[in-house]
Amino acid sequence: MLKPPPTDAELIAHASTGKLVEVLRREADADREDSLVNRLVSLHNGGQLDLLAATQTPAFEVLGVSAFFSVQSVFCGAIPKLIAPTDAVMAAVSKLVAKGGQDGAAGFPFNAFKEWMDVDTARARDIVIAADSGDAVEKTFLAIALEGQGDVAEINRFIAKGGESRLAAIGALGSIKPADAVSAQTALAVLLPYCGASFDEDVRYAAINAVFALLRLVPGLAPSAVQAIVAAVEAKPTLECLFAVVKALWLQEKLFDRPSVGAVLKLARASDLSKKGLVDVLDGALQHMLGTPERDLALDFLTDVLAQKDGPTLEALDSISHRLANEPRANRFGLAVRWFLTANRRLCEAMEHILTSGREEDEPFDASMAGMGLTGSQLVVVCHKAIGFLMLQPVVSGSVVVAALRAGDASVENQLTELLIYPILTNFGDAARGYLAGIKKGDTAYKAVRKALKQSDNYFRGIKIDTPIKELWPSDYQRNLANMKRYDLGRQIRKIADEKSIFAKLVQKSTLLYGHKSMNFVGGPDKPPVTMELKPMGVEMPMPRLDLVDPVGLDWLLRIYRSSTPK
Amino acid sequence: MKLLIRDYLASLRERQELDVVLPDLLSELGFHVYSRPGIGTTQRGVDIAAVGNDNGVKKVFLFSVKAGDLSRKEWNGGPQALRQSVEEILELYIPERIPAEYRKLKIVICLCFGGEILEPAQPLVRAFIKKYSKGKISFQEWNGDKLAEMILAGVLREQVLPKPLRSHFQKAVAMVDQPDISYEHFARLVTTLRKSIKTDKDRVRVARQISICLRVLFVWARDADNLDAPYRASELALLNCWELVKPYIGKKTANARAVVTVVRHVIELHITISSLYLENKILPYVGRHHALSLAVWSGESVDVNLKMFEVLGRLALRGHWLLWSSTEGGAKPSPEQIKLLHRLVTAGFELIQNNPCLNLPLMDEQAIEVALFLSLAVQVGSRDPMARWLSEMVTRYRLTVNGNGQYPCVFREYRDLIDHPKVRTEKYRQEATTGSVLIPLLAAWLTAFGDTESLKGLVGLKAKPLAHCTLQLWMPDANSEAHFYINDAIHGIGIDNLPLTGDGAALMAVLKTAVEKSDGFSGLSAFRAAYFPVLLTACRHYRLPLPPQFWIGALIPDLGKPAS
Lengths: 567, 564
Fold this sequence. Notes:
- The complex is a heterodimer.
- By secondary structure, chain A is mainly α.
- Chain A contains 29 helices and 2 strands.
- The N and C termini of chain A lie far apart (about 65 Å).
- By secondary structure, chain B is an alpha/beta fold.
- Chain B has 3 domains: about 1-155, Restriction Endonuclease, CATH 3.40.91; about 160-285; about 300-560, no CATH class.
- In chain B, about 55% of the residues lie in helices and about 10% in strands.
- Chain B has 25 helices and 9 strands.
- The interface of A and B includes residues 479, 485 and 552 of A.
């Protein structure tokens, strides 16, 4: 049953003990007059509690991740409506932002601060005056204040001052919508030089971001501006500048022409791809590019970097990985052939990742390698890789072999047929058989597939011994130990799955020991209960037969297939 | 208990099975058996002849034996029917064949069968008995019920098989479908019986008890279609019986003859069980890819590996017994025996080919099965398939060690094996490979085959990932004779730190010297009495590595022939 929201008295009591954040939770309808946010604002502005002070308590520091973002949401709703000294608001916002860490939502409190500042122009003015007089004002607050004031001359004055003030002012200049084309050109003319190699990293980074912010408002300036920025970064490539450009490529891809895209990717290829921040923005940019005419550039880049020994793995590029895993099957097949053919282990593993993490579990490709210009040896290698890296997906790997057979290369037909028999059909009788039996007469692969099925049937007839050979059975003791081992393994898997589950962190978990239905009085005893039918849920996958009868041989076979290269 | 014995008697399928039991039963009851069943000899209707007391009167007992129940057909349905046998006794045996010293004694013709006379046959049998019961000739019906009573009053009487031992026996029989438990009870029974021996007479009696208990166990297990328990029990029985026969080797006393006879019967029974197991359960399927591996009916590859190596060992041992029986007393094997030997070796290679887990042991001690099969195969000169098998084994050995896979380990406990390799760390691997008898065995054979490539692979393993591993072989020493057959203490000598070089020469030199200087092996009674498969059985049963004497001769020609 859900807890009712705290009463005003409870909020005041918790605030007085420094534990206010413990009872703050995001509400579905924060606009209601009696919503938690509105009552907090009312209590704060009425002097009955200090909401902002709650961010400075030990209870705030120890908030868990999911609880924190719930609390942050309450603050973001309340801050714009609070009556409070600027210092106190800035202190609370700083705390909230810092606690958010690297999360994409960590900066939301700055938006709330901006809204708070916009309520009264004096607030921006006070911040600017304080910064101008030498008081320590965090540059983001100053940038927000300068942007809020919208005074370009004032901004230029701050740019000229240098230091943190310059960084804030550059940011502000990029964010102000120019009054006209001339103002836009003027602003651009101010910002572009700061992208140059003669300035330090922070200034260049701020300037590049500011230019792209300006281009968002005035896209017409893009062609020359983007080329100028790319040229500036090429002149002296640094990690932060590259990060800023790649981020722009991700979020404002339309501003880039093809040569600029190529140039940025070239810079990225030459950079240190062990840096998570850069890899993350690259990931975003690449997955976005897959849907654009620059798709080929994205795939070339990905192929290059994934193949590098010290390059990132596909698991690190989770957006593009997800996108590729859910692309049309024809696209995935093309990429699979391309990457398997390289025989590069990292690319093959990346392909394995893509083909095993899609929505469909073990669906066949309906494809052919005819017309791809592959030699017999290349056809075989692609199939080896498909089997070696997709051992637990016999239908997928089987369909790759069928696609190779469809190329109609008689010189390797027997070899490919053998692959269908052993290891695919031998290891996964039923799973692969269903797919292969569906290959229709008239299909180039039909004859070879029938031959494979016939031989496989012989094998299955052979393994069938009508009278059980009890002498070969393990003892009860051995079976019990094996069951215990499986039980322990199952528990371990469930534990790991629980730990890795993103849902487990978000939901309240109940464990029902008995019954097939749950009944929960969510709204209280006087409201109708919510009932839920329990359904069994499980995952199963076929295990290769050789894993049982010849695990060492299977391991060896997979190693051979995985290291197979075209002649 | 009586029910158990009666059911056993009724289940005997072959007349010979009852033939073998009966003389021991009679001897134990005080009869003097002067004629035993012989193969291919005509006894004029008499299967067993003995002299004994019948209510205080000394009489000649002539037995004609049939298996199971006596139906009309079995009474009078052709030349093999009981009536014909009894008529032969009346017309030919009694007038001509009774030894002179017994001719004056009264004669009892015993109609002997494991079951009972079925109702349709009863009037016919009674009429026959009435007709021919005259003078000094009388008839007795020895049916399953009477035989069971005799067994319980004789060889298994309570004085010599007290309740706790009867309980072990009954449990061994009842649990034939759980071979581990059945064997456990049978082993306790055998050990306790053996330890109870005080006199020579006890020695004979215990040998007979072990024999009859094993027979009962076998027949019950055969009916349950699970020969695993009697197979294991028969190995244990023959090894314990060998321990009993040891003092009589070379002697010709009545007790010596009696124990030797029992030992021969137990060996024959072991061979029967082994043949039945192989012929019915294994050999028909060795040519089918994966069929036997999948017949293990388990989800664990460790089970498949353990069972397949066990099958290979049993098959090889059967071959060794065949080799022994066909050459016993300096005889030359018959063409049929040679054919059967070839068939077993070929089946062994088919077994390996179609059950690929046999290409690498999971336990180092499975070197026993490898050596058993190699030492058999080399007798028929199958060098090429042997060389291929060993080469494949080395390849897989290297692959698994280097990849931290399922490499052969020193562990013997199932709970360790099922988890092996528990962790893929150097530390665990060192623990799991502290010593090896498999590597020197492979190295010696590879040296003999001239497979330097594989030999180099082993040298490479020993040089780095298995540098810590103590390479060793085992040989019997002077103490072994006392313990080899009953496994009641650690014995023998481990030749350790064997050298491994690229050409294998150093290893072979060490082995040659060690074998030449060893007198433990030649001091073993089974070796001296030329019963070498008894030693192989002991090695397989008690998990002792095969002494190099069994195979080194095949690898170093100037050492002479191998022990087998």
